Amino acid sequence: MRLADPKAGLESRRGGAGPSDHKALTIDGVTVMAPVHTAPAFESPYVIDATDAEGRSRIARDGKTLGEAAFVMRPRFYDLTTADGVPYSKIAVLHGRDVLATTVLQSCIRYQSRVKTCQFCAIGQSLAAGRTIERKSPAQLAEVAKAAVELDGVKHMVMTTGTPRGADRGAAILCESAAAVKAAVDLPIQAQCEPPDQDAWFERLKAAGVDALGMHLEAVTPEVRQRIMPGKAEISVARYLKAFAAAVPVFGRGQLSTYILAGLGDPPEAILAMCEALVSLGVYPFVVPFVPISGTPLESWPPPTPAFMHAVLAPLAQMLAANGLSAAEIKAGCGRCGACSALSTYERALKS
Ligand code: SF4
Asked: Torsion angle, CA of 102/106/111/112, rounded to 10 degrees?
């Protein structure tokens, strides 16, 4: 989507983990993360006008008005600074409309090497630009989470992490972070990490206050996994499925999820076959269209077509409904937020 006024709405994040180069806007009551700083966005036929006095903007294509949208505005907690002098916005940011998101550890063993790094990832960019800090302490996270709930009505929290050295793959720092946030404020938390070495970590995460867990496959076929994420592909799909099978009884059916990035080369049939395996375990496959991030090796990779996404999301929504899984039932995290994919909109359309 092209912006007539680049300053409209909440300042968008450049680089970092998760959605970057986006702005959050609400259309017909649904908040989406729309890419605005990517190469395809600059060529988009969809233009969003400057915001009017009521905070609304017109969306147009070829000069014809298609509808209205409202930008998500800057949250109040961004104006605060921790006791040790760090702006709250460097500790956690607002995603979508009501999600607090943080990357507890803004570095990754895989990011250090151009050979091993995930080709889509920008985790080091925001750190290099000074827009975040490398390690958010449990006390800082608790302070920011409490303010985000009290000042801005944040409803749930996503805690992701770069993968540190050590076989727990980040589970230990997620445990201490979740425990600190839960001690400060009643806020549902989704943690995100690679499958840890021992399944006992799932019990520890749950005991620390984690309500939902994401372990992200990203891609599903061996060829694409090897090409796009050569380091992370060392953790086999089989290990992911085994970890999911162990974690579902701990967190409950539908509280486990995985990101699958559509458009990196996996055909729709392969994505849907993997989704069937996941859904049968009680895991919610959060299939999102791949959005290239500026400055990454994939910055010029074309995003998937609407037809490709429809070929995946329509049958996936039916699969979810047939198996009793739903974005609305997820306690916290990306699946519940849904701003990075139209999957939950497909789910709702089935019900209406
Ligand atoms: S779906 Fe996840 S990554 Fe996307 S905006 Fe929502 S919380 Fe952030």
From this structure: 180
Mutate to test the pocket of ligand 1, among 99, 161, 192, 336 (most ligand atoms within 8 A of CB): 99
pLDDT one-digit tens code per residue, 303-315 = 999 999 999 999 9
Q: How far is CA 232 from CA 89, 139, 220, 225, 238, in A?
A: 29, 30, 12, 8, 13
Q: What is this structure's pTM? A: 0.93
Query: Which residue's alpha carbon is nearest to atom 7 within ligand 1?
Result: 334
Q: Above 80 in pLDDT, residue 180?
A: yes
140 Cβ contact partners less than 8 Å away, ≥ 6 residues apart: 82, 84, 86, 91
Q: What are phi and psi of 85, to 5 degrees?
A: 90, 15
What pLDDT was estimated at residue 16?
Answer: 57
Residue 340 Cβ contacting ligand 1 at under 6 Å: yes
Structure tokens at 37: 């700083």
Q: Is the CB of 212 under 6 A from ligand 1?
A: no
Tell whether the model's pLDDT for residue 11 goes beyond 60: yes
Tell me how long the chain is: 352
**Closest protein CA for atom 4 of ligand 1:** 340
In the three-class reduction of DSSP (H, G, I as helix; E, B as strand; rest coil), residue 258 is classed as: strand
Q: Give residue 13's pLDDT.
A: 57
Gap between the Cα atoms of 4 and 122, Å rounded: 26
Pocket of ligand 1 contains residue 189 by CB under 6 Å? no
Q: Taking residues 85-90, what's their average pLDDT?
A: 97
